[in-house]
Amino acid sequence: MQITIAGSGGWGTALALLLLRNGHDVTLWSYCSQESEQLAQTRKNPFLPGVELPKELKFSADASCAKDAQMVIFAAPSFALRNTAKTFAPHLSESAVVVSVTKGIELQSGMRMSEIVAQECAKTVVALSGPSHAEEVSRGIPTGVVAACADKTLAEFVQNACMCDFFRVYTSPDVVGVELGAALKNVIALCAGVCDGMGYGDNTKALLMTRGLAEVARLGMKLGAKRETFAGLAGVGDLIVTCTSLHSRNRRAGILIGEGVGVEDTMKQVGAVVEGYFAADSAWKLAQENGVEMPITQAAYEVLYSGVSPKSAVESLMMRQRTAEEEHSQWAL
Questions:
Q1: Residues 182, 163: one domain?
Q2: Structure confidence at residue 326 (pLDDT)
Q3: 268, 304, 324, 328: which has the highest count of C-beta atoms within 10 A?
């Protein structure tokens, strides 16, 4: 089938390679025509070192490249997703299946990524998410993800298009849980990096990841997600990979902050979008609006936006009021 991928970053490019290998006709769209031309000429993407882009892969900077596509995948960064969806909306065919692989929450509206695409394109959207570093998928390393949609037929359509011997796709009706798990784990991963940068050990990271997952689940269930989703690939699976891998931009950013580098300089040094930075703001606002206690997310927000030192944030978290885990976490599966 003909597939257009809107977004030529590492993840969009890795998906293009996967789908090309599965026998599809794939066009990779870039916002910038110069970037598109460079990819076509060099057959290399700086975000995927050592990976050759096959001659069969097509490139474009014109959204009309989606007019005959049977599937359109949105892979733009969260801050650019709305404009990207708006750009593509007039070019989508009535029968095109639309997929969002972007992870985040829109700051102004608090909307999830599939909600943004649905609003701009007037389509039911499949959310594809899970522990899937682009660097590994592009090299054919075994990976598992979730295709989430209330319409099971659409979820299975995406499952069939993407699944192969190294890329396993499960389906789920819980779009809310899958997308919130994807977005909020970036905040926890950034915090995990801070702990690494401060020289803390495995005990600290285990504490952070476990309690971080508990508060992500609290907010998710408040917003209508299913509890069991957070015990799956889009929840604990994505959290594990993002908190522990140096492929993770969020963790790398956190390490720099933990080492004492300023937030602004950290973002420049990472050199790519750190979704956890934006998600910390969005998630903290959602928590306040919905009356959900999220102390780790609050601490991340204070470090990133209010100038609180990582050391002070850790001390505040450790000295919080005593409580029982079972009552506090609401996380007994």
A1: no
A2: 64
A3: 304
Measure the CA–CA gap between 276 and 289, rounded to whole angstroms: 19
Q: What is the CA radius of gyration of the chain?
A: 19
Q: Which helix (H) or strand (E) holds 127?
A: strand 125-129
Banded pLDDT at 333 (limits 50, 70, 90): very low
The catalytically annotated residue of 185, 205, 285, 311 is 185
**Could you give the CA distance from residue 33 to residue 222 in angstroms, rounded to a whole number?**
42
Range of 190's domain? 176-329
Please confirm, yes or no, whether 185 is among the known catalytic residues: yes
Average pLDDT over the chain reads 94
Q: Show the tokens assigned to 171.
A: 């389906």
Instruction: Specify the number of domains making up the chain.
Output: 2
pLDDT digits (tens, 9 = 90+) for 163-208: 999 999 999 999 999 999 999 999 999 999 999 999 999 999 999 9
Answer with the one of 112, 141, 173 that is the final residue of a domain. Answer: 173
Rounded CA-CA distance 148/293 in Å is 27
How many Å apart are CA 203 and CA 213, to the nearest integer? Answer: 16
